[in-house]
């Protein structure tokens, strides 16, 4: 989760000793304020001058916190809470435990988990469908927001990078391991001649190479996007009835 934020923006994380002053801290809890087992997932504080600023806390009673697998809620939680510690709030004026907010109350139409890992609301509200899975890394709007605060990391993946099958990203959330395991991600890529390789999927897919666009990959809907300022040159479809949409660069588009 830390690496995913550092890949997108000019942020470096360094582990320090307990005697040093930290900008971001991590802790576990199991009990609530009344001494009973906690029923919350996690919480965090925005940066600031107060003593809790930048601290993130995780409920160790929760199985997905102890085992934060890629594309599952625990991993999403870690990335979300670190986002708070870096200065990102929710896309709207709401918080866990405060009233009963829902997507109908949002002030920002893209306030869903299709656009932002910082959102509380289902991707289905904006036409996506992750089929019960969750992003593990910053999404389209998160990348823009964190780069606004810290600047874009222009050293990230400057070579020829493959996303999906045969991935050389060294990131599990960009790497397809088999045909039954779909992906949820937004690409930040600084340079190179890059490829979406979704050749291992048999689902009907729509692969769109335009920046700030969404693709339907591996049986999910609107689950892959390309961040602003990113160029993906090539796409490889699978064995289904795929639609491949090129951009304004000289693309190589291949079916199965």
UniProtKB/TrEMBL annotation:
<dbReference type="InterPro" id="IPR024079">
    <property type="entry name" value="MetalloPept_cat_dom_sf"/>
</dbReference>
<dbReference type="GO" id="GO:0005509">
    <property type="term" value="F:calcium ion binding"/>
</dbReference>
<dbReference type="GO" id="GO:0005615">
    <property type="term" value="C:extracellular space"/>
</dbReference>
<dbReference type="GO" id="GO:0008237">
    <property type="term" value="F:metallopeptidase activity"/>
</dbReference>
<keyword id="KW-0964">Secreted</keyword>
<keyword id="KW-0645">Protease</keyword>
<dbReference type="InterPro" id="IPR013858">
    <property type="entry name" value="Peptidase_M10B_C"/>
</dbReference>
<dbReference type="InterPro" id="IPR034033">
    <property type="entry name" value="Serralysin-like"/>
</dbReference>
<keyword id="KW-0482">Metalloprotease</keyword>
<keyword id="KW-0378">Hydrolase</keyword>
<dbReference type="Pfam" id="PF08548">
    <property type="entry name" value="Peptidase_M10_C"/>
</dbReference>
<dbReference type="Pfam" id="PF13688">
    <property type="entry name" value="Reprolysin_5"/>
</dbReference>
<protein>
    <submittedName>
        <fullName>Metalloprotease p1</fullName>
    </submittedName>
</protein>
<dbReference type="InterPro" id="IPR011049">
    <property type="entry name" value="Serralysin-like_metalloprot_C"/>
</dbReference>
<keyword id="KW-0677">Repeat</keyword>
<dbReference type="InterPro" id="IPR006026">
    <property type="entry name" value="Peptidase_Metallo"/>
</dbReference>
<dbReference type="GO" id="GO:0006508">
    <property type="term" value="P:proteolysis"/>
</dbReference>
<dbReference type="GO" id="GO:0008270">
    <property type="term" value="F:zinc ion binding"/>
</dbReference>
<feature type="domain" description="Peptidase metallopeptidase">
    <location>
        <begin position="1"/>
        <end position="136"/>
    </location>
</feature>
């Amino acid at each position: 989760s830390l690496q995913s934020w550092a890949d997108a923006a000019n942020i470096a994380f360094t582990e320090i000793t307990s005697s040093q002053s930290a900008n971001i801290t991590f802790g576990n809890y199991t009990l609530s304020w009344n001494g009973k087992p906690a029923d919350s997932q996690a919480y965090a504080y925005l940066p600031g001058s107060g003593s809790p600023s930048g601290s993130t806390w995780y409920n160790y009673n929760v199985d997905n916190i102890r085992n934060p697998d890629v594309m599952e809620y625990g991993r999403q939680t870690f990335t979300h809470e670190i986002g708070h510690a870096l200065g990102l709030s929710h896309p709207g004026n709401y918080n866990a435990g405060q009233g009963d907010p829902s997507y109908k109350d949002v002030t920002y139409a893209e306030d869903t988990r299709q656009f932002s890992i910082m959102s509380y609301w289902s991707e289905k509200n904006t036409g996506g469908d992750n089929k019960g899975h969750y992003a593990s890394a910053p999404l389209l709007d998160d990348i823009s927001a964190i780069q606004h605060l810290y600047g874009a990391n222009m050293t990230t993946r400057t070579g020829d990078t493959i996303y999906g099958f045969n991935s050389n990203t060294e990131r599990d959330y960009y790497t397809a391991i088999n045909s039954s395991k779909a992906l949820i991600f937004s690409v930040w890529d600084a340079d190179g001649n890059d490829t979406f390789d979704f050749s291992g999927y048999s689902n009907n897919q729509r692969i769109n190479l335009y920046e700030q666009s969404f693709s339907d990959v591996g049986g999910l809907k609107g689950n892959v996007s390309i961040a602003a300022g990113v160029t993906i040159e090539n796409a490889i479809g699978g064995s289904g009835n795929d639609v491949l949409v090129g951009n304004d660069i000289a693309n190589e588009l291949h079916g199965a």
